[in-house]
Model the fold of this input.
Amino acid sequence: MQVTWSVVITGNTINNVQTVNIDLGRQNLQDPFRAGTATITGRNIDALPTILIGNSVTLTADGDGTGDYIMFRGRVSDVAFQYGMVANEDTWTITAEDALGGAGRQVTTEGWPSNYTTYEAAEEFVNETEIEIDSVSPSLAGSSIVSPQSIENGNVLEVLQQLIQTEQGRIFGLSFDSIRWVGRDELGYVASYEFTDGSVTPTLPTTSYDVLNFRAFADNVANRVVVEPDGLASQSSGSGSKTFTLKSYDVSTSQAGNLASYVRSTLDQTADVPFSVSTRSSMQSNNDLLGMTAQGFYNLLRLPIVLRGVTYQCLIEGVQISSTPSDTRFTFTLSAAASQAFFILDDNFYGRLQDNGPPAFNNKLGF
Done:
């Protein structure tokens, strides 16, 4: 499969594209969420339309001529030109960022009342900004109750980070000015594709891979978690010298204590599944890889990975795409789906209680 790209900036199709690089999501579970970025390079500067900072950008990929998949939506953050000795050596570079980047550039004075969920608080906080919050299932998007707040000149992204840390869900740029909010009860319920080495008979559309990485033992990030809820006493879980600290808007110290225990359990499981998986478009025969990338990342679907007869259940934390005229590489950073494994009746993965470890505490009714 040879990936071809359509680059559209404020309605203008950009030609003579040479390379596309996209970086979405995060590297590690519990990392802060950062703006997704895209970098596009090409030739023939004179053929470029007028491009301004803030123009909308849409990157669409196709691998076999049968369908297009939107891989990035954002806004132009920079344009640069490099001139050679002759016109054929001239190149341009356009960089873009998604809605999280826009949120990081805005401040607002806003708050929310008591008895709001994290999702309701996020919606209320961005009410007077150019950003809007989107959710797949609003009824599931907020599981934790937050304390009432009145925030003056608060950075939009920083406040959203603290709210999503309280929720233990996910946020990422969905379109130019829209942020997808995924509550912890929405994470990873469905698997639509799987990466495989062919050692297990597939039950889903499959995608082959050529690099699979597990974490080193030294990569354990923390054995003690401290939660600092706004206006309340800090709560901790675990013991040891490696401490992970996060801020929250938890409504009570009891809820903050549960959050600390939950975060520690997710960190305990970081070595149980692959850390990243990578593949090239030239290894694929159809558009399944593109479909899995777009659908899996933007909807946080569960991603099974098969290695030598063992199936690891993962969630996609981030995606990096590096495309040249000769090939395109897709790299996915991963976390353990079991770290999010709340009991879901009759689900073929989450619907059975694990009691044969390790770890034996994967399935829970909530936190």
